[in-house]
Structure formats: structure tokens, C-alpha cells
Amino acid sequence: MTTLSLKLGLTPQARSFLHRAPPAIAKNLSSSGARFAKSFTGSFHYIHAFFVRSEKLDARFPKLRQRLAVGGALWISWPKSGKLESDLTLTKIIKIGYSHGLVESKTIAVDAAWSAIKFTHPKKGKKYKNSYGKLPSYPSSAHE
């Protein structure tokens, strides 16, 4: 059975940060040997943030993107099937991610209550077509 940390690509060597993770999930991820920074300063190769409301995700996304290292992964988790009175859906999250200059690559189940989608910096020269959103123009240094 593949562990959650392995599915997420989380390694003990990666500089990592968790934002508002439910305690059981934080404990599960920490049990893999991963250590998470206490403050959100510098850049990170692994960021995992949990959101319930689209406006909070949209407001926080620029800072998450800013702290994501080139080659790093930003995982956004949201409650499954509208649990916790969430207004987030997969399509809304993809649209928010694209509007802030990141592209999605895969989606997984974190546990019975939470899903997650992985975002990365777009690769230089690659064309991205997504019916949910359009990438803004950023300086080339923001791309892999």
C-alpha cells in the first residue's frame, strides 16, 4: 500500500510547509520523517495548504505561489463533496490556480474527508490549454 507521503511526493529532505492541515493529516505526514517549517518564509519545495472557502484560497494563492520553489509542488486540499460547508470544487480550484500562474497535474484523495490537487510552475515553452482557466503572463524567471 502506497503511503500518503509517497503519493504526495513528500520527502524528509524537502523544505516543507503545512497550512491549516487537520491534526490527523499533519500527524500522518510527519510520521514519514518529513519536517515542516514553523514560519512561512523563504522558498519551499513542498507546500500543502487546506482551504474550505474559495475567496480565502484566491486571496492566499499569490503568497503560496511566491514561496513555491521552481520544481516544487503546491498541494491544495479541500473538503470532498461540499463537506464543512465548502464552496470549493475541482474546477474552481483549477481556475484559481491558473489565474495565479500555476498549472495542475494530478488529484488524489488525502483521506475520507479531503481531496488534494497538485500545482507546479509551468514549464518554459510548453503550451497549456485548460478549459477552466488561462495562465497570465509572468517573467520567464517564474517558469521552470
Give a description of the structure.
The chain has 144 residues and is an alpha/beta fold. It has a single domain, classed as Rossmann fold (3-Layer(aba) Sandwich). Helix content is 26%, strand content 26%. It contains 4 helices and 5 strands. The protein has a 5-stranded mixed sheet. Helix 3 packs across helix 4. The chain is globular and about 40 Å long.
Parts with pLDDT < 50 across at least 5 consecutive residues? 140-144
Trace the largest sheet across and list its strands.
1-2-3-5-4
CATH superfamily: Vaccinia Virus protein VP39
Strand content: 25-35%
Q: Roughly what percent helix?
A: 25-40%
Mean pLDDT: 91
Q: Please identify, by name, the CATH architecture.
A: 3-Layer(aba) Sandwich
Biggest beta sheet attributes = 5 strands, mixed
The total domain count is: 1
Instruction: For the record, give the distance between the C-alpha atoms at the N and C termini, rounded to a whole number.
Output: 32 Å
State the main characteristics.
144 residues, alpha/beta, Rossmann fold, five-stranded mixed sheet, 5 strands, 26% strand, disordered C terminus
Give a quick precis of the structure.
With 144 residues, the protein is α/β, with parallel strands linked by helices. It has one domain: 3-Layer(aba) Sandwich (Rossmann fold), CATH 3.40.50.150.
